[in-house]
Amino acid sequence: MSRPKKQKIIEARVSSEEEEGEDTLCLFCNDQYSTSTEGWISCIQCKKWAHYSCAGIDSDDDESELICDICKPELPHRAPPTGQNGVKDTFCLI
């Protein structure tokens, strides 16, 4: 049984980096590709690599794409809820 297309691409890229004396690191856990037994995926923007499990992606999903936390645009922050008369509500958990 042949390996999925993504796996072949990952191996080709890592092989060329190993020839240069470098090893690819997972951008989440810093594990080295050369010592890892897990599947890897590349961020489609910065091209850095991560384990499927570290990226929270199902390794069986061949259509998965990763945009890492560094490349994701900041989500707009919502203002805290406002109560009656425009006064911000404050909650205290006991």
Describe, in short, the structure shown:
With 94 residues, the protein is α+β, with helices and mostly antiparallel strands. The chain has two helices and two strands.
Can you put this structure into words, describing what you see?
The protein has 94 residues and is of the alpha+beta class. The protein has a domain of 51 residues: 2-Layer Sandwich (Herpes Virus-1). The protein is built from two helices and two strands, in the order H-E-E-H. It has a two-stranded antiparallel ribbon. The longest helix has 15 residues. The relative contact order is 0.13. The N terminus and C terminus are likely disordered.
The CATH topology of one domain is Herpes Virus-1
Strand order of the largest sheet: 1-2
Stretches where pLDDT falls below 50 for ≥5 residues? 1-5, 14-19, 87-94
Assign a percent range to the helix content.
Answer: 10-25%
The helix-and-strand class reads alpha+beta
Shape: globular
CATH architecture of one domain: 2-Layer Sandwich
* Strand element count: 2
Radius of gyration: 20 Å
- The SSE order reads HEEH
Distance N terminus to C terminus?
Answer: 58 Å
Number of helices: 2
Mind summarizing the main beta sheet?
A: 2 strands, antiparallel
The overall average pLDDT, rounded, is 71
**CATH class placement of one domain:** Alpha Beta
- Tell me the β content: 5-15%
GO molecular function: zinc ion binding
Pfam families: PHD
Keywords: Metal-binding, Zinc, Zinc-finger
InterPro entries: Znf_FYVE_PHD, Znf_PHD, Znf_PHD-finger, Znf_RING/FYVE/PHD
